[in-house]
Design brief:
The complex is a heterotetramer, with two copies of chain A and two copies of chain B.
Chain A lengths: L1 E2 L2 E2 L8 H14 L3 H14 L6 E3 L1 H7 L3 E6 L9 H14 L4 E6 L3 H12 L3 E7 H6 L1 H9 L3 E5 L6 H15 L3 E3 L10 H9 L1 H14 L5 E5 L4 H7 L8 E9 L10 H4 L1 E5 L2 E5 L24 H9 L2 E7 H15 L5 H16 L5 E6 L7 H23 L1
Parallel strand pairs in A: 4-14, 5-6, 5-8, 6-7, 9-10, 9-14, 10-13
Antiparallel strand pairs in A: 1-2, 3-4, 11-12
Helix pairs in contact in A: 2-4, 4-5, 4-9, 5-7, 9-11, 10-11, 14-15
Chain B lengths: L12 E7 L5 H13 L5 E4 L10 H12 L4 H5 L1 H7 L6 E4 L2 H5 L3 H10 L4 E3 L9 H9 L3 E6 L6 H7 L5 E4 L15 H11 L4 E4 L5 H8 L4 E4 L1 H15 L1 H16 L12
Parallel strand pairs in B: 1-2, 1-8, 2-3, 3-4, 4-5, 5-6, 6-7, 7-8
Helix pairs in contact in B: 1-4, 1-12, 8-9, 11-12
Catalytic activity (chains B, D): (1S,2R)-1-C-(indol-3-yl)glycerol 3-phosphate + L-serine = D-glyceraldehyde 3-phosphate + L-tryptophan + H2O
Pathway (chains B, D): Amino-acid biosynthesis; L-tryptophan biosynthesis; L-tryptophan from chorismate: step 5/5
GO molecular function (chains B, D): tryptophan synthase activity
């Protein structure tokens, strides 16, 4: 259960046996052709995989460097890569005879994916969500309810994702005998980081084959955004042993030199959160600090333990991108390619665009476009309105 | 191996839990004194934590209150010598999540435990398999490393109970800390299995909230941990506890409340 | 340019030559392998086609009749079948050397699809949208703007889709020399109904092949919703000559016996609107009346002329479904299958579910799920809230 | 073939457009009289329509006003005999979109045209190719079927102009009706081409808004249609026109405004 020194299983004793059972069940499942067939059947016939790889031709031309390709996880059912894992874990729950599902969610993407598979499998579903996020993401709350899930507002702590995760774990501790906890990223106690990785590696496996078919070679760089880090791990898994540069991009929020960011690798220190040893944003006494990012999906104070390991070995390079930089990249992709990326994914785009400029035209970058930006339109609207207001103020001030 | 309690036990153990710094450090000291007076066999001193996943809402709120007051793991440990000065001589067990411990150099953490006369260490989110090094260090420093065992532990019960020090902390039912009305009937067979392997007292916690429950459990274990019920009382008394003119009266009220859980025999000897 | 007596080219003289040029260019394009290759390349690599066919197993079981399959147009880039046509027409515009695009939109789906392809092709894009719709669909307005399109609020008439179409035509009349008008459905003057049909027939062509691969036979019935009717025509095209029942479903709004519906075939009369002869909702003096449907995409007073023809020959059966029935079907699919359908598509679902109950279990229905329901969440929320309020009122009234 | 105007023309044609029922039916009658007095060679009487795609905002609004007042194609036609009673003897051309026509039985539509002494029919959304049957019927009933021709008509100009009746209505530039400041220079060659094929007067419309423009166009065509400029004046006067006590004054104002477009020679003969 370790990635170098990272990972592990730091949980209340009550969960130790349930986690061992899940580990065993997953191991057996992954060797059972019938399980794998059902998993891939659902990915293909239900979620619409394989997702395509799109050349961002206009952006490539504009930047004048490396060719930019996008792995289109935004085209999945429910709009992001989250469904790959939710399908896999729901199948695992079914295999283990569990008919009740719990999940945590921040902006609601993993919650919607979990509510979706719970509906598909006829399972009862409870989604824990910080009260503050419930307020901010009413549409996703309603989507989950429409799918038949119960959304439980969490009032502890800062009432956001970290607290929702705490509460989901508490509920699971009390109900682990008949509930399966579908964790949404490569975080949590072992075996979750491994399970989620294995259910997300389809992204990279597909992308590698597709890219080779198009270009006849491997990409020069592969990039993805990281919050917990599931889309990045899923993308990188296929390339870890290849001669390909891997770059993951964290959320720098208002800047890594402020205290308003979510750049866990860049600025974090080692610690234990939600069951595993990894890098965290915390104070000197080990109290977890509240992260910040405009992107709800990257707004998490920890990171998957495998990322902590990949950072420490140097196999993957970790960079960070501010809110503002991500928004500029999002707008560029929208205007040039007609693709509205999730703000999460826009962090990877921003960094990739900078890399591309420095690279030669025979080189290439393959970016994981982890989700679509429809969910972010409210955020973008208020941001661009604020910006316009700000510009008006500046203009008013300078023309007087 | 160090033992926290003199064996064989003369009375059932009453181990109260309070959060350090709730509602402030001075109150914590006085509350500890009151608990000893109410018959506590030992005190679990909880370190407030931002992400207490093993705790129910009552202790979560206590944690938040204490953190707002600036409490931290080092300050919390330094409360213990103050308690000793006021006559607390029962064992003090530091209850802390793993992460705050991890942020201290291991040597300085154990030095702090020793110099602050702390007797035991309980980390709810470190399972047996991850605790080898810490248990080793505890033995070196004569600190009892308390292990938890749960109804779901099944095949793990033997391993945990055989290696237990101080006491075995049995989780009463599935779950996190908090007040419960009823206990699962299966608790008897669970406790029997723990007792079969344990060389130290077998104590039940998580959800003990009334004298009746204490009595019900007394026949099948060596004692109880009472947490949320007491912390809820502290929450109720917080304003009085923070005000110097009303503190003593609040402490009196708290002591009376705590006595409903305590053993009738108030004089004990501690090792 | 006729489907039986329907269709034609009833437009101001100014547009006659431009329409003839488009007809000619389209004819040549469809015989040019390079054009078709680029079109299908974009469909596959950009929009993510082929879209999958999903068995709605839980609903099938629940209804106890025919097997229900869904053609998943909701998985397209931008969330509906509209992009198929937008890509095709944008390629045609490019071929004709036009660099400026105009489009009309109601709820904004075709507007978003058009703004998307305009961004992809680097074309200037103006989207005409009724002022009332601009107000109701702010998020889609913002999406179009983010994609670089100019959204022009239309203040004439009732300020909804019909008026936006009028205004787009007026603008085109004045700027036809350098503008290409991308019409969003199988309506308008010849050759538009034909062009849009040919760019949407990929739906049925794919679905037919996919269905045969799954079931080894053709479906018993093929169903789709109709407003203008592009997804239905696209789906039916492949099956017109097969021994397959075809059923199209119109919006009955508050009921076809009220004046609040959009059931053009069921209740309309022959007339000319937006350039073609078809069935219309109009008064005895030929004034077009305002249609009503909870679904903005079906809220149109006309219907594609080919549908008028298929109705008159009886090859396709036209039914209608009320707002309420559509919502019940939408909720059922969400709760049973984890798929949130567009309210438009839910009309087809509702009728299909009724058919399924009457059919044998060896029979099957293939439904075109034309789009995803994310865009409708606001509408659904206010509807279900109203419903809950109504129930409360009833309860309060009956318990006094 | 019926001709609307005596040939050769003695003056340039001035063909005003007004919407039937704007602001009400009685006003429309009086406005028609005023237009004849202002020198109109013929009047285009517009049938209000819900979806006037060939019209700019001014005439769209006039349509809306008229529809709100309950105007329809049958009522509109019945205004013409009232105009005749008040002395209007110039040709009246019914301007209507195709759909209202389509909703009437063809025989009764032509009967209505005849019995209401209507001289011509102009349908802006029916192109030459779709009009064969209607043109045939018009000939049978001695109604001039007016054809439009546009700068984009290119190869269609010959076909349309050769078959034109009454007059050829040339769209001045790309576009819908409405007031324009300037005309495209290419209009001269466009009109030359139309004149080359036409046996009837060649008239320019869509966007003629001032006396200067009329004069500018006079040298290159046989007359002009003026719509939006007049309808805007009616819009301005609508309140006065609806009030019996102020109507006459408003009509006087309108007549004076219309005269700026009219030929100086006010006495004409009509066929």
């Amino acid at each position: 259960g370790r990635y170098g020194e990272f990972g592990g299983r730091f949980v209340p004793e009550t969960l130790m046996s349930p986690l061992a059972e899940i580990e065993q069940a997953h191991k057996e499942a992954m060797q059972d052709p019938a399980f794998l067939e059902e998993y891939h059947h659902l990915l293909n016939e239900y979620s619409g995989r394989p997702t395509t790889v799109t050349l961002a031709g206009n952006v490539t031309e504009k930047l004048g460097g490396a060719k930019i390709y996008l792995k289109r996880e935004d085209l999945n059912h429910t709009g992001a890569h989250k469904i790959n894992n939710a399908i896999g874990q729901a199948l695992l729950a079914k295999r283990m005879g569990k008919t009740k599902i719990i999940a945590e969610t921040g902006a609601g993407q993993h919650g919607v994916a979990t509510a979706t598979v719970a509906a598909k499998f006829g399972m009862e579903c409870k989604v824990f969500m910080g009260e503050e996020d419930v307020r901010r993401q009413q549409l996703n709350v309603f989507r989950m309810q429409l799918l038949g899930a119960e959304v439980i507002p969490v009032t502890s702590g800062n009432k956001t994702l970290k607290d929702a995760t705490n509460e989901a774990m508490r509920y699971w501790v009390q109900h682990c005998e008949d509930h399966f906890y579908i964790i949404g990223s490569v975080v949590g106690p072992h075996p979750y980081p491994y399970i989620v990785r294995e259910f997300q590696r389809v992204i990279g496996d597909e992308a590698k084959e597709q890219f080779q078919k198009i270009e006849g070679t491997l990409p020069t760089k592969v990039m993805a955004c990281v919050g917990g880090g599931s889309n990045a791990i899923g993308m990188f898994a296929a390339f870890l042993k290849e001669k390909v540069d891997l770059v993951a991009v964290e959320a720098a929020g208002m800047g890594v030199d402020t205290d308003m960011h979510a750049a866990t690798i860049t600025k974090g220190t080692k610690g234990v959160l939600h069951g595993s040893l990894t890098y965290l944003l915390q104070d000197e006494f080990g109290q977890i600090t509240e992260p910040y990012s405009i992107s709800a999906g990257l707004d998490y104070p920890g990171i998957g333990p495998e990322h902590a390991h990949l950072a420490s070995t140097g196999r993957v390079k970790y960079e960070s991108v501010t809110d503002q930089e991500a928004l500029v990249a999002l707008e560029l992709l929208a205007k040039e390619e007609g693709i509205l990326a999730a703000i999460e994914s826009a962090h990877a785009l921003s960094s990739a665009f900078e890399h591309a400029k420095q690279m030669a035209s025979h080189e290439s970058i393959l970016i994981c476009l982890s989700g679509r930006g429809d969910k972010d339109v409210h955020t973008l609207m208020s941001h661009f309105k604020e910006e316009a207001k700000h510009e008006d103020t500046i203009q008013a001030a300078t023309t007087k | 191996m160090k033992t926290l309690f003199k064996q064989p036990l003369q009375n059932k153990l009453f181990i109260p839990f309070i959060t350090a710094g709730d509602p402030d450090g001075n109150a914590t000291i006085d509350l500890a004194v009151a608990l000893q007076e109410a018959g506590a066999s030992a005190i679990e001193l909880g370190i407030p934590y931002s992400d207490p996943v093993a705790d129910g809402p009552v202790i979560q709120k206590a944690s938040s209150r204490a953190l707002k007051n600036g409490m931290n793991i080092v300050k919390a440990m330094k409360l213990v010598p103050e308690m000793r000065k006021k006559g607390v001589n029962i064992p003090i067990i530091l209850f802390t999540y793993y992460n705050p411990v991890l942020q201290l150099e291991q040597e300085s953490f154990f030095a702090l435990l020793r110099e602050n006369t702390i007797d035991g260490l309980l980390i709810p989110d470190i399972p047996f398999e991850e605790s080898a090094e810490l248990r080793q260090k505890c033995q070196e420093h004569s600190i009892s490393f308390i292990s938890l065992v749960a109804p779901t532990s099944s095949s793990r019960i033997k391993m945990i109970a055989e290696n237990a020090e101080g006491f075995v902390y049995c989780v009463s039912s599935l779950g996190v800390t908090g007040v419960r009305k009823n206990f699962d009937n299966s608790i008897t067979s669970f406790l029997d299995e723990v007792k079969q392997y344990s060389n130290v007292p077998v104590v039940v916690g998580f959800g003990v909230s009334s004298k009746e429950q204490v009595e019900e459990l007394s026949s099948i274990c060596d004692g109880v941990v009472v947490g949320s019920a007491l912390v809820r009382e502290i929450e109720r008394l917080q304003t009085s506890l923070l005000n110097e003119t009303t503190r003593n009266k609040a402490i009196d009220e708290f002591r009376e409340f705590a006595k409903t859980f305590g053993s009738e025999n108030e004089s004990k000897e501690y090792v």
